[in-house]
Amino acid sequence: MSHRIVVVGAGYAGLLATKRLARKLRRGDVTITLVNASDRFVERVRLHQFAAGQPWSAASLRRQLSGTPVQLVVARVTEIDPTGRRVCLDVAPGAIGYDTLVYAAGSRARLDEVPGAAEHAYAVADLEQATRLRHRVAEIASGGTVAVVGGGLTGLETAAELAESCPGLRVRLFTGADDVGSGLAPRARTHLRRALDRLDVSVHPRSVVAAVREDGLDIRGGASFAADAVVWTTGFRAPELAREAGFATDGSGRMLVDATLRSLSHPEVYAVGDAAAGVSVTGAPSRMSCQAALPMGRGVADVVAARLTGREPGPVRIGYAFTNISLGRRDGVVQFTRADDRPRGFALTGRAAAVFKEAVVRSTIRSEAG
Ligand SMILES: Cc1cc2nc3c(=O)[nH]c(=O)nc-3n(C[C@H](O)[C@H](O)[C@H](O)COP(=O)(O)OP(=O)(O)OC[C@H]3O[C@@H](n4cnc5c(N)ncnc54)[C@H](O)[C@@H]3O)c2cc1C
After folding, report:
1. CB distance 323 to ligand 1 below 6 Å
2. What domains sit in the chain, N to C, each tagged with a CATH number?
3. 5, 61, 134, 177 from 149: Cα distances, Å
4. For 126-165, how does the pLDDT look when each residue is reduced to its tens digit (9 = 90+)?
């Protein structure tokens, strides 16, 4: 019987891994099944643009996989059974068995951090949430307010995009930090502040949000702000599937893996992308980003193909080159970094950064060719 490889999740990491596995391994020796919740490839890095009302298209996974022997199963994995070596699905055939599992289920918004966020907050972490926000933004009358919570990359990009695409809205950005852009070198940070001023985004530093209400939010210490929508962008968390299955995971639900992306608890299982706590070049856990997801997707295919053909693979290298922040469609900041993610002195700003980021996003899609 041929060796059964099942990949869960067709995002940046899972789709790349699947296509590369299909290229590297011989039909007949393996069967490769890709399970994904939808039949589309969602460009997550554009979801803030979509939420702000910009045009949207999502590539067909069937088209992406045409000409390969990969079987696409459009279903949600509800459970992983490591003893029976199968993934359980919410639709027929109900379950699929594996000999090797590649777990690439991505991540979601951390909506459980404060009271009221799960009920009332919006998010941009997945297509469903971004769609809800898009509809809400379209409903809010001119002069209304959107509060973005979180001064990280997703919060900055979302606030800037909303401010540029919906000039009638007032956009407030709340961060618990002393300022925005603390990971950037001074020139990039100054540009970021100027761009937010130009877009009329009000930044509220040292403002830890304690609760979200239907009509606004409360800050720790007593202040409250009214808002027509609160967007929660304080970071991502991996799905519960891996932890519930008994795989070794970290506090964010990411699967703990060795340098070859193999589960520390279950050697027939690998994890990639946001759902994996990969080991980056410094030895620190990988950052949830495409910059980590893509080498992991490529790397896991090389590792699995090597082991199935009797070779012992080397470690997968996860390093960084830049932090890429769009500030609307015509502005941005590209902070070049060392491989360990620390900023270098050199940054691109303004239109050059926007053009650079767009080129990177497009090349990310091209790299899905494997
Ligand atoms: C608005 C926004 C902007 C971003 N900008 C950047 C950026 O500029 N640069 C950068 O490097 N990163 C950025 N990121 C982060 C980046 O999008 C993620 O790091 C990246 O998507 C991770 O890829 P992945 O393959 O691990 O997961 P994903 O791309 O999330 O793919 C996971 C896939 O698994 C599927 N799935 C999940 N659970 C199940 C299940 N139970 N059953 C079946 N299928 C399932 C999902 O439907 C999805 O198709 C951004 C994220 C957001 C939300």
Report:
1. no
2. 3-107+238-308 (3.50.50.60), 111-233 (3.50.50.60)
3. 40, 33, 17, 11
4. 999 999 999 999 999 999 999 999 999 999 999 999 999 9
